[in-house]
Amino acid sequence: SAVISQKPSRDICQRGTSLTIQCQVDSQVTMMFWYRQQPGQSLTLIATANQGSEATYESGFVIDKFPISRPNLTFSTLTVSNMSPEDSSIYLCSVARGTYEQYFGPGTRLTVT
Amino acid sequence: DQQVKQNSPSLSVQEGRISILNCDYTNSMFDYFLWYKKYPAEGPTFLISISSIKDKNEDGRFTVFLNKSAKHLSLHIVPSQPGDSAVYFCAATDGGATNKLIFGTGTLLAVQP
After folding, report:
1. What span, in angstroms and rounded, lies between the C-alpha atoms of B108 and B33?
2. DSSP A26-73
3. Residue B74: exposed, middle, or buried by beta-carbon count in 10 A (0-12, 13-18, 19+)?
4. How many CB atoms lie within 10 A of CB B3?
5. Any A CB within 8 A of B10 CB
6. What is the pLDDT along chain B (113 residues), one digit of tens a residue?
7. CA distances (Å), A100 to each of A64, B50, B69, B78, B84, in order?
8. Which of the residues B4, B33, B46, B57 would you substitute to probe the A interface, choosing the one with the greatest number of A C-beta atoms within 10 Å?
């Protein structure tokens, strides 16, 4: 498995502002992922972040709204830009381990007012 | 289009009895399946997985069954314990280079003492 931490654990932000979420892993990993879980919904993949290359975004997510950095093999950030109440969600990072297993951080609970 | 479905949003079971959580999928390219457990305010925790070349995988109290012809998998927990009370997500992947997981909507399991 892996030990994954996220900062902040929760935040309340105003509409129109941006928030950067950090994800730190205790060992080097090639693939990191960012997910969103909207209230009462499933986990939806936002993007895959590989070190040394541009993040790959899923349909419905764009880099201008969710810029991602991956400066090294243990760290990544996700920024939620120009926030609206619809961005209120839990944001989770994960890392790939084993065959196809992913291990998740504790999540960042974001509320946009 | 919801490729992975968990049709039961909730399930209540008595302590010591069997819990059966179900999951259906539509994409015949999926060849690896996983179950995660999620407590409130925590990230999902990997439980057990199964490859499409198998029809059963067991790990302690947890057993996953796969019926490829029916595109159905289930998680059995025996015996159920109050600490098993959580939201359970099934996930699937087609095993591509992206390691992308598609999650179901989750089932809330309540194990009554």
Report:
1. 19
2. SS--SEEEEEEE-TT--EEEEEEEETTS--EEPTT--TTTS-EEEEET
3. middle
4. 15
5. no
6. 789 999 999 999 999 999 999 999 999 999 999 999 999 889 999 999 999 999 999 999 999 999 999 999 999 999 999 999 999 999 999 877 778 899 999 999 999 99
7. 29, 10, 22, 25, 24
8. B46
